[in-house]
Amino acid sequence: EDGYDLWLRYRPLAAGGATALPTGVERRGDTPTLRAAEAELTRAFAAMAGGTPARGARVVLAGAADPEVARLNLPLADLGSEGYLIRQVRLGNAPAILITGNSDIGVLHGAFALLRHVNTGQALAGIELASAPRIGLRLLNHWDNLDGSVERGYAGESIWDWWTLPEYTGPRYTDYARANAALGINGTVLNNVNAKADSLTAPYLEKAAALAAVFRPYGIKVYLSARFSAPVELGGLPTADPLDPAVQAWWDAKATEVYRAIPDFGGFLVKANSEGQPGPRDYGRTHADGANMLARAVAPHGGIVMWRAFVYADTDPDDRAKQAYTEFKPLDGQFADNVLVQVKNGAIDFQPREPFHPLFGAMPGTPLMLELQITKEYLGYNTHLAYLGTMFEEVLDADTMLPAAGASVARVVDGSLDGHRLSGIAGVANIGADRNWSGSTFDQANWYAFGRLAWDHTLSAEAIAAEWAAQTFRPDPALTGPVAAMMMGSRQAVVDYMTPLGLAHLMGTGHHHGPAPWIADLARPEWNPAYYHRADRQGIGFDRTASGSNAVAQYAPPLAARFADPATTPEADLLWFHHLPWDHRMQSGRTLWAELVHDYDRGIGSVVQMRRQWDTLAPLVDAERHAETAAFLAIQQRDAQWWRDASIAYWRSLNGLPLPDGAAAPAHDLDWYKALSFPYAPGHPD
Ligand code: BDP
């Protein structure tokens, strides 16, 4: 039980269980996709049978065009090109469980849905399932480098072995495709947004093409991050100015070359003028100029451009949280119609908690893609158990109130609010060459939750946690209930012990491991934790009201009003929006200072509680995965204590306040915490 199987872990079903396994699989049609669906079902049923004879109706895989399926008049119209329908019907005068869809990919998705159904302990007899994705582009973004390292990766090296590609495409690539197709993920950006131009050279395109060939039967398209200055680096041009005809011609030719190698290539993802990356601003052009140039190059081939809004400049003295909005909102309506602007969930950077990004709702004329981070750069790497389903749900459900109430981020992103043809969501992958893919068993759940919510954002994080636990461990409520409960509280625990009450970006420099709220001397102001917490003798927090940066004004008027007043700001975001005195009275009746300490302790308490809960589950979990998780939870408790103690020691050095009644003193003095260093922390680019 090394975790390799992910949610495709097929084991003998419990004797006397709900499921009568099918007597066979009938495939109507001979395409690689239908063959993959058949292979998955056959393999799963054989493993699940565990020697007991099958008794259930046969499964039939058939597209909507099959004459017998057509005669059934099934409601397939709403399934789109990727959805599926599963029904118990009569075919060829015998009972059958039909898996169908408007395309082979739909049928494949249905096959995986059926296996999820069985693997979560539900009966096949009388099965009726139908589902279609709400968001068009459901992509993983790999931050994988050509040298095999993974930026912000905590699961080992990259799974792409660029060295042995294109000749060698071992089984791992197929298993990657299976795991993603099971969730409905339909695209993958292979390389880091901090891109090397080399990815666009002929040898690397050939390597990418080999991966595309493996993924194609699974409905997964390949995309690449494009380096904006590639015309200079590869083409020898003196400029990468997007309005220069020679630059445009270079990209047109490059796009043609890419599509010759990969006919169904998805398109480009671009990080421009951000953290040192080149971009159109280098030439006095706008982000729209840059995006549209690439968009024109891929348009004849059916490609798209995903242009990231993650920008902030050292030359801009304004609040970092405001800069993307300031730069992008005026460009609304100027992007070509095959461009999506990709926006992180929050305005700063994948923190344990951020209010939703104010660009959502503010650019109705542009399809906005939501970018989530699955890899836990700021949430304790792979050793802290933090289920991100709740975090993803929080942002998707957030109401932008633009133009009016009921305009959730999910409705902006799925295109329904503004009637966009294109819609997309991206997750920065947490996948690496580690045997268990994600660096820990529970981090697999974050990949899983991303995929499930990308397919259907109306699913609940809790239901997803339970179904993940059932497939990962066993479909036994005695296990799935407690595991889901652990998961549901786990992200708040991290918020509590790292950055409670709306604090953000207090992590160690560069690697982002552990607390370093005292850092104040880095070259760029907004790289310093002190920039974000602004704590001093009197108080703490970032004033984003009119008396401060006025970032609140970037939200819809009713939200701006709510966030402008500490009394109506959700306490979870309090110090994000306000600088308040240490003795500010909280809803609990405690002072702000006492509340902070209380939250740190609550965070540690939650981890202690998770450890206890996990211990009780030992009889229901295999020893290998149980022991690893137990060890990681011990690391998490140690780190939570460290975060609490170091933070409290630092805040006290500023506010001079005594510890609240009953609170334990930090284990060490502040200098001890300051002296810790982590030159070899994983995932760090420098
Ligand atoms: C930050 C990461 C950095 C990424 C950047 C991005 O620290 O490694 O390159 O985001 O999203 O969170 O571009």
Within the CATH hierarchy, at the fold level, what is the topology of the largest domain?
TIM Barrel
The end-to-end distance, rounded to whole angstroms, is 35 Å
User: How many domain modules?
Assistant: 3
Shape: globular
CATH superfamily of the largest domain: Glycosidases
Strand order of the largest sheet: 6-7-8-9-10-11-12-13
State which percent range the strand residues make up. 5-15%
CATH architecture of the largest domain: Alpha-Beta Barrel
Say which molecules are bound, naming each kind only once. Answer: beta-D-glucopyranuronic acid
Q: Average pLDDT value?
A: 97
Q: In CATH, what is the class of the largest domain? A: Alpha Beta
Helix percent reads: 25-40%
Protein structure class: alpha/beta
Distinct helical segment count: 20
Q: Main sheet?
A: 8 strands, parallel, barrel
- Spatial extent as radius of gyration: 26 Å
Give the uncertain stretches in residue-range form.
none
- Give the number of DSSP strands: 15
Q: How would you describe what is shown here?
A:
Residues 118-437 form the Glycosyl hydrolase family 67 catalytic domain. Residues 439-662 form the Glycosyl hydrolase family 67 C-terminal domain. The protein is of the alpha/beta class. The chain folds into 3 domains: 25-131, Chitobiase/beta-hexosaminidase domain 2-like (Chitobiase, domain 2); 137-472, Glycosidases (TIM Barrel, Alpha-Beta Barrel), CATH 3.20.20.80; 496-542 and 579-674, Alpha-d-glucuronidase, C-terminal Domain (Alpha-Beta Complex). 36% of the residues lie in helices and 10% in strands. It has helices at residues 32-49, 67-71, 104-119, 171-181, 202-215, 230-233, 245-261, 287-298, 320-328, 389-397, 409-413, 441-455, 461-472, 477-498, 529-533, 557-564, 574-577, 592-616, 623-655, 670-674; strands spanning 25-28, 58-62, 84-91, 94-100, 128-131, 137-141, 187-189, 221-225, 267-270, 304-308, 339-344, 368-373, 424-428, 539-540, 580-581. The strands form 3 sheets. An 8-stranded parallel barrel has the order 6-7-8-9-10-11-12-13. Helix 1 links the parallel strand 1 (25-28) and strand 2 (58-62). Helix 12 crosses helix 13. It is globular and about 80 Å long. Residues 151-152, 193-194, 271, 275, 310, 349-350, 377, 685 line the site of beta-D-glucopyranuronic acid (BDP).
